[in-house]
Amino acid sequence: MYTNFQSFLEKEITDIKEAGLYKNERIIVSPQGGEIRLANGNKVLNFCANNYLGLANNPQLIAAAKEALDTHGYGMASVRFICGCSDIHKLLEQKIAEFFGTEDTILYAACFDANGGVFEPLLTEEDAIISDALNHASIIDGVRLCKAQRYRYNNADMADLEKQLQDAQAQRFRLIVTDGVFSMDGNVAPLDKILPLAEKYDAMVMVDESHSAGVVGATGRGVTEQYNLRGKVEILTGTLGKAFGGAIGGFTTGKKEIVEMLRQRSRPYLFSNSIPPMVSAAGIKMLELISETNQFQDKLHNNVNYFIGKMKDLGFDIKPTQSAICAVMLYDAKLSQDMAAKLQDEGIFVTGFYYPVVPKGQARIRVQISAAHEKEHLDKCIAAFTKVGKEMGVIK
Ligand SMILES: *Cc1c(COP(=O)(O)O)cnc(C)c1O
User: Fold this and answer.
1) Distance 384 CA to ligand 1 centre (A)
2) Which residues are CB-neighbours of 234 under 8 A, at least 6 positions away?
3) Whose CA is nearest to atom 2 of ligand 1?
4) Is the CB of 209 under 6 A from ligand 1?
């Protein structure tokens, strides 16, 4: 039996390679940070991590995690409702709710699980989910697991959202779901327009803050801070794996009855292990740090403004962004791959994206800015883009 399946897989894998879509892993041997060391010994500047606040190797988070190893041990060896819930899991949930101005929080092993487990327990075939076309894969999968009627609107297109809401009026409950920041362009969901439409057409709203938490808004409290709508959205989901320390873990935070129901019925919560206590402890420390001071958020925002300002002055075509994601548009797939490779030769770690990750003819290099970057790192990155960009005729 396996012989047939083996040759089937070998052929599929060859096809992936021939299409130029094969994903290789680049091995890092240092902690994650602005500057990293690769297995081949090279040091490179990292411009493709989600380490927005530079906390992935923060000494205070590491100390908090080490302390929790001593006080709470290594693992919980249980799901939450049997015996997998510690005092620090509860405290982290409370701290997340305080941070976002919400009522209650439920933790998951990852945001992929939070999104996978949010729709099915809450909505049935009588209801409607209205989803942005560019939403994250985990939202798409979560919606697939739910029997609600599905509606899709073009990315951030409010006229289309309104049309879908009109079409969904026959259903009992309606939930609009959107990423807070869309990861390929860096644009923020227009929540200031989504909420009035939700009001008009009697819908609830869910925002996935994975790329916006810690980043968007003056104090990094996400898209609801940006639009002055804190506490106004029924459901927020997010990750501890990006700006919030970069380890692992996800959450759903929002209305208390919703969270209460998820604790009863959400399958990734009921049938999957708790996050390690050290991750909870470091998460609590992280929220304390970024609430006591705005230094990480300020540094990130200054870095983003500096980098994008310089790149535009040089003549690069940058997608409008309101986040720490900077898409350098190249349009041509091969160019995006060749340019990313040349940048890596210059010691700059970035990734080129092309179809089907982004629409055809919209190839780009995505640069992710971090508070872990010092000005000299940004200047080196800009110098490398200038050199390679001129060589390849991208800028004059
Ligand atoms: C990264 C990401 C996730 C997944 O988060 P994990 O905690 O790594 O599973 C979910 N949604 C969005 C929008 C993301 O960007």
Assistant:
1) 30
2) 175, 204, 205, 206, 254, 255, 258
3) 210
4) no
